[in-house]
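INFO batch 0412 | record 1 of 1 | parsing
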Amino acid sequence: MSRYGWIGIILGIWLIIAPFALRYQNITNAMWNDIILGVLVAVSSYLLSTDVRRAGVGGGTENR
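INFO prediction complete | emitting tokens
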């Protein structure tokens, strides 16, 4: 997994944790916005980084 994939996953996890760490979980719209976006960012970063890694450099599909 590339360094940028890890950064996206970490930022996604932070968005999930932020409402509780910064104590604004009583503002429901902001809390759910951060949780949903955090899940989307973390999952998409993971899927994109594994897809890019699987494709290899150059994106070719030839066998190695």
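INFO post-check: The mean pLDDT is 85.
INFO record closed
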